[in-house]
Design goal:
single chain; about 675 residues; alpha/beta; OB fold (Dihydrolipoamide Acetyltransferase, E2P); seven-stranded parallel sheet; six-stranded parallel sheet; binds adenosine-5'-triphosphate; helicase
C-alpha cells in the first residue's frame, strides 16, 4: 500500500464513506494516517457511586435497582433507571436510544460508563455504555481512539481504516538520526504512528505523542530557519521608500495610532525600505489593532506600483477584510483595485480574479489559502501578509515569487505566548509586539454564571439592543447530537426567538453553511440588521463589529481558556462598555476555577500562563487549545519543554540535508 492510495481502496470504505471522509479532508491513505485521534476512551477501574465527580466520564459497577422507564420528553425519547452500590444511588439517562430499554434488567449487576452531569441537585450519568464485568475486564488498560468525525461516518470505520493502513504500509525510514532520538529519548517514527492511533497503554501513548509533537515543532522551526537563511540570499526587489499616501491615510483615520502601533508601523516601514525582504511577526492581543498596520502596509506597496496580498485563516474573515478595505479606499479616494480570492468562488469568478491579478489590474488581493494556488500568477507581488495559522516557509514564499523576486512577509499573531516561547518558535523572524490597547477602550466586564441566570442574561441583552448595541451568543455545536447535552446553534436560535419575541432580530451562523449564506448572515450583522447572532466558533478570530457589546458563551466549560479569550475579544472593540457572560451548567470546582481566571483578567498573557499552571504540564488528556497555531498535537504552552528540545535540535541539524525530510510528517 502506498501513501497516495485512495481511501476508497481500503476494505469497508465505499464511495459513500469516501465522500464523507473527503469532507473531513481525508482522501488518501496518507491523510488517514495523519488523522490523529482527538481523544481516547480509557477504561479505568470502576469507582463507587458515592465518589463520582461531576463533569467527567466515569465508570461504576452497580446493580440496576430502578424500574426501566421509557418516556417522550419535550422533543426526544428518554430512557431512565437507577443504579445502586453500597455507597449510593445514581440515576442513569439515555436520550434517543429507545433500544436501551431492552438491554437493562432490574436486579442485574453491570458496568456502566458515561458522562456524569449535575441535573437539578443530583448527579446523573448520561448516555452510559453498558458492559458485563467480563467484557470490561478485557478492555481495562486500553486506550481506544476517538476521531473527529462527521454525521454518517462512524468512529469505528475510521479506526478500522487506519488499522488497515498501519498493518499494510511499508515501514518508513526515520528521518531523525538515531543518535538524536537516543539523546532526547524519542521513539522511532513507525512506533509513534502506531502508538498515537492504537496505544497499548498510557505510557505508549505518551511516547508516541512526544515524538510526533517534537516533529511538529521541529518542522515549524526548520521552515522558519530555512526562510531566514534563504532570505539572507535574497535582495529586496520591491523596495518601498515613499510612504506619503499611507502616512496621509494614517493622519486622516478617525483615531490616532497607539504608541505601540506607531512603533510597529515604523518597523514595518523600515523593513519595506531595507536591503533585504522583510520576514516579520507582529504579535498583539485580541483587538490591539493589528489590521490597520496590515492595511497601511498594503497601501504603501500599492502606491509604489506593486501588489500586496493578505491571507486570512477563514473565508468569513477574508470577506470582512475585503469589505472594509474596499470601503476605506472609497472613503479616502484612493485609486487601487482590490480583488477577493477564496476557495468557494465559482470557477468563473476565480478565473476573473486570476486574470486581474496577472494583469496587475488589482493591486490589493485578499483571500484565504486559495492565494497559494498554482493557477495564481502574480505580476509584482511585493508584500504577503499572513496569519499564524498558515504555515509559511520558503516554498510558500517562493510560490509567490515572480522571476525570482520574492515578496516581503508579515505574519500576524494574536496568540498570547510569552516572549521566551515566541523567540524559540519564531526566533528566525523579526518580532514586533503591539502591547497596548487603543485608548478609547473600556475594560470588558465579565461574569461566570450558571444556567439559571439565562433569563437575566436575555433581559440584559434586550436592554443593550434597545440602546442600539448588538450581541453574540456562542454555542459549542451546530445541531443536536446524540450523546451530547451541549447547546446547539439551530435549536438555540429558535428558543431565543421564542423568549425574546419578534421585536428582536435574531440570526444564526455556523461553519457548515454554504458560503453565500454565511456571507449574508455576517453582512446582516455587520450592518446591524441582525441584533443578536447565535454562532459557533466560526467567528472566533478576527471578526470585528465594534458595535457588538455582549457575548454570551454557552457551555463555557467546553472551551479552552485561550479560545474563550479569543471569543471574548469579539466585543470590547469600540468605545462602548462591553460584557462577556460565561455560562456553564457545571458545578465542578475545577471548571469554576478555570473560568474565574477569565473573570479576573482580560490580559491574554496572564490567562495563558495561569491556564498552564492549572492544567499542569502532565495533563495531556485535558482540553486542547484548539484554534491556536494550528499544531495537530502540540501545545506550545504545555509542551514548552519539547519546543525547547526541538529548537536545540534544529540548531544542530545540517539544514539542507534535513529539509528534504518527510515534511508532511515532520
Ligand atoms: N489606535 C486605535 N484607536 C482606536 N481604535 C482602533 C485603533 N486601532 C484599531 N482600532 C479599531 O479597533 C478595532 C480592532 O482592531 P483590529 O481588528 O485591528 O484588531 P486585531 O488586533 O486585528 O484583533 P484580532 O486579533 O481580534 O483580530 C477595529 O475596529 C479598529 O478599527
Amino acid at each position: 500500500m502506498i501513501e497516495s492510495t485512495k481511501v476508497t481502496e481500503l476494505k469497508g470504505i465505499g464511495d459513500k464513506s469516501g465522500k464523507l471522509m473527503a469532507s473531513l479532508g481525508i482522501e488518501t491513505v496518507r491523510d488517514l494516517l495523519f488523522h490523529y485521534p482527538r481523544a481516547y476512551e480509557r477504561f479505568e477501574d470502576p469507582v463507587a457511586i458515592g465518589d463520582l465527580e461531576e463533569g467527567k466520564i466515569q465508570t461504576i459497577k452497580a446493580y440496576i435497582t430502578g424500574k426501566v422507564q421509557s418516556t417522550r420528553g419535550k422533543s426526544v425519547q428518554i430512557t431512565t433507571t437507577f443504579f445502586e452500590d453500597e455507597t449510593g444511588r445514581l440515576k442513569a439517562v439515555w436520550f434517543r436510544m429507545p433500544y436501551m430499554k431492552n438491554c437493562l434488567k432490574r436486579g442485574e449487576e453491570i458496568i456502566l460508563r458515561g458522562y456524569v452531569a449535575m441535573r437539578g441537585n443530583q448527579l446523573v450519568m448520561e448516555q452510559g455504555k453498558i458492559y458485563t464485568p467480563q467484557e470490561y475486564e478485557k478492555l481495562q488498560g486500553y486506550l481506544l481512539p476517538v476521531y473527529h468525525t462527521t454525521k454518517g461516518l462512524s468512529n469505528n470505520l475510521i479506526s478500522k481504516g487506519i488499522r488497515q493502513v498501519i498493518d499494510g504500509m511499508t515501514l518508513r525510514e526515520d528521518s531523525l538520526p538515531g543518535e538524536i532520538r537516543k539523546k532526547y529519548s524519542l521513539c522511532e517514527i513507525n512506533y509513534a504512528l502506531r502508538g498515537i492511533h492504537f496505544p497499548l497503554n498510557v505510557e505508549e501513548y505518551y511516547q508516541a505523542r512526544k515524538r510526533l509533537v517534537f516533529n511538529e515543532f521541529l518542522d515549524f522551526i526548520l521552515s522558519l530557519k530555512e526562510l531566514k537563511i534563504e532570505g539572507e540570499k535574497w535582495e529586496n526587489e520591491y523596495p518601498v521608500c515613499d510612504f506619503t499616501e499611507s502616512e496621509e491615510l494614517k493622519k486622516n483615520l478617525p483615531f490616532s495610532l497607539t504608541n505601540a502601533q506607531e512603533k510597529v508601523w515604523n518597523e514595518i516601514k523600515a523593513d519595506l525600505a531595507s536591503q533585504k525582504p522583510m520576514s516579520r511577526l507582529v504579535q498583539g492581543d485580541v483587538g490591539s489593532g493589528k489590521t490597520i498596520l496590515a492595511v497601511l502596509g498594503l497601501i504603501s506597496v500599492a502606491a509604489q506600483g506593486f501588489q500586496g496580498a493578505m491571507m486570512a485563516p477563514t473565508e468569513v474573515l477574508a470577506r470582512q477584510h475585503y469589505g472594509s478595505i474596499v470601503k476605506l479606499l472609497e472613503e479616502y479616494h484612493l485609486p487601487y483595485q482590490v480583488v477577493l480570492l477564496t476557495g468557494s468562488l465559482t470557477e468563473a469568478k476565480k478565473r476573473e480574479a486570476y486574470e486581474r491579478i496577472e494583469k496587475r489590474e488589482a493591486s490589493i488581493i485578499i483571500g484565504t489559502h486559495a492565494l497559494i494556488q498554482e493557477k495564481v500568477i502574480y505580476d509584482s507581488l511585493a508584500l504577503v501578509i499572513t496569519d499564524e495559522q498558515h504555515r509559511f516557509g520558503v516554498k510558500q514564499r517562493e510560490s509567490f515569487a515572480n522571476k525570482g523576486k520574492v515578496p516581503h512577509i508579515l505574519v500576524m499573531s494574536a496568540t498570547p505566548i510569552p516572549r521566551t516561547l515566541a523567540i524559540i518558535l519564531y526566533g528566525d523572524l523579526d518580532i514586533s509586539v503591539v502591547d497596548e490597547l487603543p485608548k478609547n477602550r473600556l475594560p470588558i466586564k465579565n461574569c461566570v454564571v450558571g444556567v439559571n441566570y439565562r433569563k437575566t442574561a436575555y433581559r440584559f441583552m434586550m436592554e443593550e439592543v434597545k440602546k442600539g448595541r448588538q450581541c453574540y451568543v456562542i454555542c459549542p455545536m451546530v445541531e443536536e447530537s446524540e450523546g451530547m447535552e451541549a447547546e446547539n446553534v439551530l435549536d438555540y436560535a429558535k428558543t431565543l426567538k421564542d423568549a425574546m419575541g419578534s421585536d428582536f432580530s435574531i440570526d444564526f451562523l455556523h461553519g457548515k453553511m454554504k458560503q453565500k449564506e454565511k456571507d449574508e448572515k455576517m453582512e446582516g450583522f455587520v450592518e446591524n440588521k441582525t441584533n443578536i447572532l447565535v454562532s459557533t466558533t466560526v467567528i472566533e478570530v478576527g471578526i470585528d463589529v465594534p458595535n457588538a457589546t455582549v457575548i454570551l458563551i454557552e457551555n463555557a466549560e467546553r472551551f479552552g481558556l485561550a479560545q474563550l479569550h479569543q471569543l471574548r475579544g469579539r466585543v470590547g472593540r469600540g468605545e462602548h462598555q462591553s460584557y462577556c457572560i460565561f455560562m456553564t451548567p457545571s458545578k465542578s470546582s475545577a471548571t469554576k476555577e478555570r473560568l474565574e481566571i477569565l473573570n479576573n483578567t482580560n490580559d491574554g498573557f496572564k490567562i495563558a500562563s495561569e491556564d498552564l499552571r492549572l492544567r499542569g504540564p502532565g495533563d495531556l488528556f485535558g482540553i486542547r487549545q484548539s484554534g491556536l497555531l494550528n499544531f495537530k498535537l502540540g501545545d506550545v504552552f504545555q509542551d514548552s519543554d519539547l519546543l525547547k528540545m526541538a529548537k536545540e535540535v534544529s540548531e544542530t541539524l545540517e539544514l539542507k540535508s534535513n529539509i528534504t525530510i518527510d515534511r508532511g510528517l515532520l
